[in-house]
Amino acid sequence: MDRPNISLPDSIGSDSIDCVSIILPTYEPKTEHIGQSIQSIADQTYDDIELVIVDSTGLDWLRELGEEYSWVTYQYQEPAGLPAAWNAGIDAATGEFIGFLSDDDYYAEEKVEIQVTHLNQGYDLVYADEYVIDEDGSVTYLSALPVDDPEHHYVKYFREGHGVPHLTVFGRADCFRSEPFDERLEVREDPHLWVRLFKRYDVSKIDKALAYKRRREDSATGDPEMLYDNELREIDLLCEEFPELEEYRSEREQMAKYRYGKHLLRIGRTSRSRSVFLDLLRDGMVETPVIGLLLVSLLPAGNRTAFQYLESLAETRKQ
Fold first, then answer.
1. Distance from CA of residue 214 to its chain's centroid?
2. What is the tens place of the pLDDT at every residue in 18-59?
């Protein structure tokens, strides 16, 4: 992949005490959106940012960015999975605050400024809503999980298992150094970490979309079996670390299976998804989204409109 057409300033640092490190791992040589990801960092309204690139592609132009720009830190890492890449970025970061960015996605221009201001009100961690861009170009506003009871937010998030966009999670560097990503997980390392962080630190939510995430079915999270297996492993690890979560295990495992079925349906594996939804009904999860998606699985393959409607209904149920 050739160097994209991006316009970067020589410096976006002011040596302030509130320097922000944004960690960007990249592992696919043909990723087509990384230029926009990097440009969105350069275009931030906040003026003290360090971009930490953890590269597993070996692309020359990424290494050259670290040589050409004082605000870009480049680190090559042999492919070892996303959790290891995130942790390598945390180790290399020098900022007071840390945020995360994937090489398909990008930030709203005011994201860092808004989140630094929010953290300086006395919080350790903050996250926000996001926009999701589907492969057909459609854009959906995704509301993140509200923080109604900060002390027990980790329990609420464990029970849901989703609802905190990793692109929007932002916090004090010490939080991530004391609680790194768990490298035993291939995927879902981020929700596993969020539960641990929410248990130990003060968290808040901003009611505004501050990032844009592209949904790709061929991405690392595009394999429904791997994602489901890792979610079950995540549940095991969290119940082991926090025994008080054990009473919610069955409920959470049902939610994981529901997401598995929905994922299968989204990628066109209707027969398998139908079996999953029937299992959930037999197990007592007799709820409108499950019934609705079961009905969609009976429709001719490719009925995208019906699926999107029922998926929207399911998301409404969780807010």
1. 11
2. 899 999 999 876 667 899 999 999 999 998 999 999 999 888
Query: Does the structure show a pLDDT above 50 at 318?
Result: no
- 179-231 pLDDT tens trace: 999 999 999 999 999 999 999 999 999 999 999 999 875 554 578 999 999 99
| Count of residues making up the chain | 319
Helices (H), 136-242: 153-160, 173-178, 189-200, 224-241
Phi, psi of 243 (to 5 degrees): -55, -25
CA dihedral 82, 88, 92, 97 (to 10 degrees): 50
Q: 45, 27, 52, 51: which is closest to 103 by C-alpha? A: 27
Bridge partners (DSSP) of residue 53 are 24, 74
Instruction: Write down the residue that tokens 């079915």 correspond to.
Output: 217
Strand partners, 50: 21
118, 206 contact by CB (below 8 A):
yes
**How far, in Å, CA of 21 to CA of 25, rounded?**
13
- Read off the tokens for 161: 């298992």
pTM over 0.85: yes
Whole-number Å distance between alpha carbons of 239 and 87: 23
User: Using DSSP, how many helices (H) and how many strands (E) does the chain show?
Assistant: 12, 9
Q: Report the alpha-carbon distance of residue 304 to residue 159 in Å, rounded.
A: 29
The DSSP H or E segment spanning 140 is: strand 139-142
Pull the structure tokens for residue 125. Answer: 């961690």
pLDDT value of residue 47: 87
3-state DSSP assignment of residue 108 = coil
- 173 within 8 A of 95, measured Cβ to Cβ: yes
SS3 123: coil
Domains of the chain: 20-214 (3.90.550.10), 224-318 (no CATH)
What is the rounded CA–CA span in Å between residue 93 and residue 73? 8
